[in-house]
């Protein structure tokens, strides 16, 4: 039981490594193995979260080496996100079965699941680590598997998008590694808490500023924050269905979580005030909200629309973090989870529709609501959620961030937030309008059947979570508030 | 060496990083971009390793008759991991470039932009 | 006191709506389902009536989710009034719709969303805090959209887009206002006599006011936010009836009433002086709406502009901030609703029976469809403000309220409005009764029973509301209880 914390990340990683062996000559076994590993991860993270709720944050020294010499894994309020990660990932893994059967060649199928599991392991590891370099390694696990997964479905656009993503991601990773190197050179330590303490004694200002700057820019690229978001739309839109869900819901949040983990390191310095940085983040977040929404409005392809919507929603989260008042940061962090749930629902539902119909543009998908009623219901729930209708999950983040904006004395940001919400409403209504209130353009659309059960169940489960996440959202909000307090007050 | 001359190597690495970044951004050929990326990665690794150096330190290997000061071995471990990551990224990028060449017939970014 | 009936009321029509979607293919079953749900709901709300008359407030807390506010319901006299009006009208509208929508396409979708609309309306009426109100308000927008675009013609789709554009912007403004209220007052609950009482002088207060008034003003058709209503006339007549009398516009004015009495409170508003702007806008709307109605040639369009004009009576009543004016505002919710729905029923019956929609074509219909036109006449007289009809009560109390507020111009406004109403209703009535019919096809006769009975019942209500002010237990006393609740003072001469 005491080794549960590393198990959370190690389980999917090892399972991912073993997939090719398990699926030797029997490619369809890979799915079952992957789902089992995903379920195991879910159980482990659930147990960890339970322990967190009962006794508070706890640590695990890797290899028995006590921090700050060893690598420390730590499960605190922010790490509870790993439970959300595991939930979403399990849904994605269950969903992938049909997709992989149709789009991935049999000899590659095992590698597909392998990559997915490595991705999961990296995500969970990233959330649970208190060591800077360990964070970098987990980030790379996620990033490299993501680059490969984008191209997994084949196709020209996917390959190009994957390359663009790779270049952007690798540059940002190098920036982060560079900063980690600077911090290590200055303080001699890699443990986050230790670095925070030692950094206060460092006299060389230039390198510290360079480190802050490089970290921020690096994580901004990972989070696709305006104006460094250009790699995202193509990557998320041309990736295979389940991969888009993972990318938009989870991988993109690495940048945000990274910022939240790393910025408190610099708050102990008397000569450095993070306020200008937070101000800049708030502004960029607000601009991202509006530009992302406007760009989404112009799209015809449903997946591109969803991808730009991700850009917009990351803007919300960063705005919340940039405003730096407790409700705003709570709202931003809660939106990390909620947007993950919602975006996964939307991408998986869209993926199911594309799987059945073969079409991706709103024009071609007219009237699908009648042929695929349950999938469309799930999609509609996701739409209502992301629009922020109470009491769905999407409402919580927006409410707290708006409240935080007023508390910070910046009503303009609250107005930007609501304007963005309105724009979001418009383009998602376009989707619903096309699905339900237009007649299909082609005869063949009438023969479309409902999505297969293995796709439908996870989609509906996630849609239900979108609804419940709002109604019973006091748990995540409380955890987010704790994490926010650590960010604003303690750090 | 005194003053900022002490840190000449660090400036060199930052310069190398910027050169690599420039190559990534400015060059059109995908393989050249990849090379720029590798230059960036190398600069960061060199930076980290150099930061572990101690004045008058020797290789961090304990043995009979070997006394300190030792250079810090931690950065060595760090960059080994980093090199592994860099190699896998390079391999993946090369595979993607081959695929792009196969699908699009070109690996010049300018021409590829026109194709989309 | 905690009472499950409070949440049962909206739940019934919600269940009905969902059942219609799943099981509603068969005409007979669907009709039975919707009708029985309507009746059960009305009866349920009636059981809450005696308590409300005494001033009892029922409550039910459903979900307490994070913002510290929850989804909660409460039945106070004001909410009760609104809920009673809409439930009664739902029964009538359902009967009418069953008759009108025979042989029409997409009946399942129609009746399903019809039921959901009323569910959300009662949710608005029984909302215990601003957040619940907002939730059901937005749900109402979503549920009425499929009804507006029912015919799916290009005109209908355009009208639907315009409707959504207006109402969604309004909703966003209300959300802004809600967050501001939470920020300024720390709570969103109704029933405190003015959440923002302690917030006078705060710099964000004007923004809050504008956001909430403009937000609710969209559905309340306060000029210049009224543009969606005339265009929405392309909807089938039962939908127009629902929109104009029962649900959407009444939700807008109800929201404004809640904002006035429960969010800001009469004292704060009197101190701030913003309401004089609103009163001016309302007066302008009353007049401009009437002038626009005069210019219309299409019957439904004239009804639309008349609605815009009439709604501002309610807004004006709230803006004057006196108990008598509040009386007028609340009572007019019912008066306008019943009279307007009568007129819409008539318009639909005429269209079904003769295919005519333009006003000059209505000559002589009194001969052929006497009961129909009688109902229309009753409603027209009510709008003009003839004593013994409901509309007179409103004008009377609004005038008194104006005098109470030292705003004598209100009396003049009432007279002017009465004259304008006469100018655009009386010619229609005259033409119908005293001119010979032209070009009527053979076999045009009185409207079928399913269309006729609802309009006669609502016309009877119009008369009833006009004469029964002293009868205990009748709507008027409920309105009095509501005024007592919102102003803390008794009303009435």
Chain pair with largest interface: A-B, 27 and 32 residues
- Looking across the biggest beta sheet of chain A, what order are the strands in? 1-2
Number of strands of chain A: 2
So what's the overall shape of chain A? globular
Number of helical stretches of at least 4 residues of chain A? 20
Percent helix range of chain A:
over 70%
Distance N terminus to C terminus of chain A?
A: 30 Å
Write structural notes for this entry.
The complex is a heterotrimer of chains A (491), B (116) and C (493). By secondary structure, chain A is an all-alpha fold. Helix content of chain A is 76%, strand content 2%. Chain A is built from 20 helices and two strands. Chain A starts with a helix and ends with a helix. Chain B has a single domain, classed as Helix Hairpins. Helix content of chain B is 68%, strand content 0%. The mean pLDDT of chain B is 85.
Helix and strand arrangement:
The complex is a heterotrimer of chains A (491), B (116) and C (493).
Chain A: H1 4-22, H2 29-55, E1 58-61, E2 72-75, H3 81-103, H4 106-127, H5 132-150, H6 156-187, H7 192-199, H8 205-223, H9 232-238, H10 241-251, H11 253-262, H12 275-297, H13 302-323, H14 326-357, H15 368-371, H16 373-387, H17 393-407, H18 411-437, H19 453-471, H20 474-490
Antiparallel strand pairs in A: 1-2
Chain B: H1 8-26, H2 30-51, H3 74-104, H4 109-115
Helix pairs in contact in B: 1-2, 2-3
Chain C: H1 4-23, H2 27-47, H3 49-54, E1 58-63, E2 71-75, H4 77-100, H5 107-125, H6 130-148, H7 154-185, H8 205-219, H9 228-231, H10 237-246, H11 248-264, H12 266-272, H13 275-294, H14 299-320, H15 323-354, H16 365-368, H17 370-384, H18 390-404, H19 409-434, H20 449-467, H21 475-487
Antiparallel strand pairs in C: 1-2
Helix pairs in contact in C: 1-2, 1-5, 2-4, 4-5, 4-10, 4-15, 4-20, 4-21, 5-6, 6-7, 6-11, 7-8, 8-11, 10-11, 10-15, 11-14, 13-14, 13-19, 14-15, 14-18, 15-17, 15-18, 15-20, 15-21, 17-19, 17-20, 18-19, 18-20
Short description:
The complex is a heterotrimer of chains A (491), B (116) and C (493). With 491 residues, chain A is mostly helical.
List the main descriptive attributes of the protein structure presented here.
heterotrimer, A: 491 residues, two-stranded antiparallel ribbon, 2 strands, B: 116 residues, mainly alpha, elongated
């Amino acid at each position: 039981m005491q080794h549960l914390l590393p198990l959370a990340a190690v389980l999917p990683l090892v399972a991912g490594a073993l997939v090719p062996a398990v699926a030797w000559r029997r490619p369809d076994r890979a799915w079952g193995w992957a789902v089992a590993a995903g379920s195991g991860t879910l159980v482990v993270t659930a147990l960890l979260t339970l322990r967190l709720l009962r006794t508070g944050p706890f640590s695990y020294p890797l290899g028995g080496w006590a921090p700050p010499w060893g690598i420390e894994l730590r499960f605190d309020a922010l790490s509870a996100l790993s439970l959300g990660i595991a939930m979403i990932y399990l849904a994605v893994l269950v969903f992938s079965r049909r997709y992989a059967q149709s789009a991935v060649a049999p000899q590659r199928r095992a590698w597909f699941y392998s990559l997915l599991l490595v991705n999961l392991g990296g995500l969970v590891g990233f959330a649970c680590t208190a060591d800077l370099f360990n964070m970098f390694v987990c980030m790379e696990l996620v990033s490299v598997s993501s680059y490969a997964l984008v191209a997994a479905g084949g196709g020209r656009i996917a390959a190009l998008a994957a390359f663009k993503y790779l270049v952007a991601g690798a540059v940002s990773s190098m920036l982060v590694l560079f900063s980690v190197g600077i911090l290590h050179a200055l303080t001699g330590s890699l443990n986050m808490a230790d670095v925070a303490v030692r950094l206060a004694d460092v006299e060389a200002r230039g390198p510290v500023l360079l480190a802050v700057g490089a970290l921020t820019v690096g994580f901004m690229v990972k989070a696709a924050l305006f104006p460094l978001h250009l790699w995202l739309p193509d990557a998320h839109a041309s990736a295979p269905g389940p991969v888009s869900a993972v990318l938009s819901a989870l991988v993109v949040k690495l940048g945000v979580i990274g910022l939240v983990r790393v910025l408190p390191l610099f708050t102990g310095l008397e000569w450095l005030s993070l306020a200008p940085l937070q101000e800049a983040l708030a502004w960029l977040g607000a601009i991202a909200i509006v530009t992302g929404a406007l760009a989404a409005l112009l799209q015809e392809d449903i997946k591109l629309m969803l991808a730009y919507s991700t850009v917009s929603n990351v803007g919300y989260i960063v705005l919340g973090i940039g405003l730096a008042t407790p409700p705003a940061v709570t709202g931003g962090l809660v939106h990390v989870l909620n947007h993950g749930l919602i975006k996964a629902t939307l991408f998986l539902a869209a993926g199911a529709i594309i799987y059945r119909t073969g079409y991706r543009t709103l024009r071609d998908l007219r009237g699908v609501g009648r042929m695929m009623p349950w999938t469309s219901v799930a999609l509609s729930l996701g739409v209502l959620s992301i629009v922020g209708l109470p009491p769905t999950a999407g409402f919580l983040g927006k409410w707290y961030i708006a409240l935080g904006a007023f508390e910070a004395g910046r009503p303009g940001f609250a107005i930007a937030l609501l304007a963005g919400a309105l724009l979001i409403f418009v383009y998602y209504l376009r989707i619903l309008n096309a699905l339900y209130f237009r007649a299909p353009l082609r005869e063949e659309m009438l023969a479309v059947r409902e999505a297969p059960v293995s796709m439908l169940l996870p989609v509906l489960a996630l849609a239900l979570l979108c609804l419940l996440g709002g109604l019973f959202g006091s748990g995540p909000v409380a955890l987010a508030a704790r994490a926010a307090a650590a960010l604003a007050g303690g750090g | 060496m005194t003053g900022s001359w002490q840190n000449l190597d660090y400036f060199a690495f930052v310069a190398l990083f910027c050169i690599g970044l420039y190559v990534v951004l400015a060059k059109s050929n995908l393989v050249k971009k990849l090379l720029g990326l590798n230059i960036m990665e190398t600069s960061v690794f060199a930076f980290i390793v150099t930061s572990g150096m101690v004045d008058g330190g020797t290789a961090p290997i304990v043995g009979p008759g070997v006394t300190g000061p030792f250079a810090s071995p931690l950065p060595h471990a760090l960059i080994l991991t980093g090199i592994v990551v860099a190699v896998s990224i390079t391999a993946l990028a090369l595979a993607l470039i081959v695929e792009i060449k196969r699908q699009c017939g070109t690996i010049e970014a300018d021409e590829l932009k026109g194709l989309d | 006191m905690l009472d499950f009936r409070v949440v049962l009321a909206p739940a019934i029509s919600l269940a009905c709506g969902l059942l219609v979607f799943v099981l509603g293919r068969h005409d007979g079953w669907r009709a039975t389902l919707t009708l029985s749900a309507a009746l059960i709901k009305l009866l349920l709300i009636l059981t809450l009536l005696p308590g409300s008359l005494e001033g009892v407030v029922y409550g039910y807390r459903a979900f307490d989710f994070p913002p510290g506010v929850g989804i909660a319901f409460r039945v106070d006299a004001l909410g009760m009034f609104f809920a009673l009006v809409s439930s009664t009208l739902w029964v009538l509208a359902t009967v009418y719709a069953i008759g009108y929508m025979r042989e029409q396409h997409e009946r399942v979708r129609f009746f399903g969303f019809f039921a959901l609309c009323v569910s959300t309306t009662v949710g608005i009426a029984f909302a215990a805090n601003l957040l619940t109100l907002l939730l059901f308000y937005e749900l109402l927008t979503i549920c009425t959209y499929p009804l507006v675009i029912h015919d799916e013609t290009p005109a209908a789709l355009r009208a639907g887009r315009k409707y959504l554009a207006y109402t969604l912007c309004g909703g966003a403004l209300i959300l802004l206002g809600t967050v501001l209220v939470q920020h300024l007052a720390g709570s969103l609950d109704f029933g405190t006599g003015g959440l923002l009482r302690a917030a006078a002088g705060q710099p964000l207060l004007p923004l809050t006011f504008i956001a909430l008034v403009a937000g609710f003003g969209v559905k309340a058709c306060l000029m210049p936010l009224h543009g969606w209503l005339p265009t929405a006339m392309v909807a089938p007549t039962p939908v127009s009836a629902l929109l104009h009398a029962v649900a959407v516009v009444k939700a807008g004015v109800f929201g404004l009433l809640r904002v006035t009495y429960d969010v800001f409170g009469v004292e704060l508003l009197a101190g701030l002086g913003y309401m004089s702007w609103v009163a001016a806008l309302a007066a302008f709307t009353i007049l401009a709406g009437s002038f626009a109605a005069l210019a219309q040639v299409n019957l439904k369009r004239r009804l639309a502009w008349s609605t815009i004009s009439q709604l501002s009576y309610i807004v004006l009543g709230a803006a004057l901030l006196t108990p008598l004016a509040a009386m007028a505002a609340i009572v007019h919710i019912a008066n306008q609703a019943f009279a307007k729905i009568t007129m819409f029923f008539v318009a639909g019956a005429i269209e079904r029976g003769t295919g005519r929609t333009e006003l000059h074509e209505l000559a002589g219909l009194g001969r052929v469809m006497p009961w129909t036109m009688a109902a229309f006449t009753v409603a027209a007289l009510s709008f003009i403000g003839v004593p013994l009809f409901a509309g007179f009560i409103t004008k009377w109390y609004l005038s008194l309220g104006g005098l109470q507020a030292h705003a004598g111009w209100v009396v003049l406004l009432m007279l002017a409005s009465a004259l304008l109403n006469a100018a655009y209703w009386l010619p229609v009535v005259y033409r119908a009764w005293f001119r010979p019919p032209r070009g009527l096809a053979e076999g045009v006769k009185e409207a079928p029973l399913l269309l006729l009975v609802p309009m006669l019942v609502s016309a009877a209500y119009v008369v009833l509301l006009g004469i029964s002010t002293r009868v205990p237990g009748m709507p008027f006393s409920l309105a009095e209880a509501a005024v007592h609740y919102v102003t803390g003072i008794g009303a009435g001469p």
